[in-house]
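In this section we walk through a basic example: taking a raw amino acid sequence and producing a predicted 3D structure, encoded as discrete structure tokens. The instruction is simple. Fold the sequence below.
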Amino acid sequence: MAEQPDKESKTEEATPRRIEDAIQKGNTPVSREVAQFASILAIAACVPIVAHAFGANLLASLTALLERPYDFRLSAGADAVLLLATVGSAATAVLALPLAVLMIFGIAVSVLQNPLRMVGERIKPQASRLSPTKGFTRIFGTQGRVEFLKSCFKLTILSTCAIYFLLKHKSDLVNAILLEPAALPQALAGQMLNVLIAVGISLAGIVAADLVWSRIKWRMDLRMSKQEVKDEHKQNEGDPLVRAKRLSLARDRARRRMLTAVPKATLVIANPTHYAVALRYISGDSGAPMVVAKGLDNIALKIREIAEANDIPVIEDKALARSLYAAVSLDRPIPPEFYKAVAEIILYLMSRSAAPIAPLPRGA
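The resulting token sequence is shown next.
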């Protein structure tokens, strides 16, 4: 009962990170029905070839048995070993091809569903696999009931196809007894191939549905709760509170560095209480004045205090202070459209100062 509320809380789609982690651990959507369907196709592809080879090997084996009956009297252990070796070699020669084809088809189906990857997590011992409770849940839970219904459906299809062909071709099967031993497998191969084709066509629908359902079920199992999404976001981006604190500290450090540049300024252009922009202009320098500090409200007042404490002129010009604050970044020269306004202020300061100040460069 504890799992049901937990599943109900998982309402969010899996994030890319959750999906990637699942794939890295070997948790991928796999349809067993596709693998079984591929096995049927592999067997159907091998039936004509195997039937011919089996017939030839059967004839050779029976001939050996009939020509050397005294070699297989089974009166001693060596006779039994010889008989098993003779039959085993014939069976190996016949079954080698279908087994190889089944293996190739199995690998191909796995690769088509999911790329091959080495995952140590899947072979690592896990106590949960030995849990009777979890085993009971797997067998009698929703997934177990679905698998049981699919097995019943497949068994019904196989039984129906087998009974239909047995009833339809019973006379052919009876007449096959009269055939030569070498011809018997070839005669039965056609009927077996027809049964496999009918079974494959009948199972195609359930295979396609299971392929789609396996991926939907996989996505559903990977769903996350809102808290899990928040926790992952914190891991990816950092805790919002910590990140805000970090940004606040960075702004404080930048503000302190900026305020240490105010004593080096040539003048401060300010709105009485809201804006302050500190400019540095070196006499004889061909460059435009640089914005070394700027601020709003409390920072603007702090800039004014530092400027006044260091005998730096503070010129109040509301429009110019607003425009410079909005248009010019920190540690950047003022653009040409401000040359005239700033030049007038500098000329005013020149008239009050004994030290000469070089004129501003000509702007556009």
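Looking at the output, two observations stand out. The radius of gyration is 44 Å. Residues 28-116+129-221 form one domain. In the next section we compare this with other chains.
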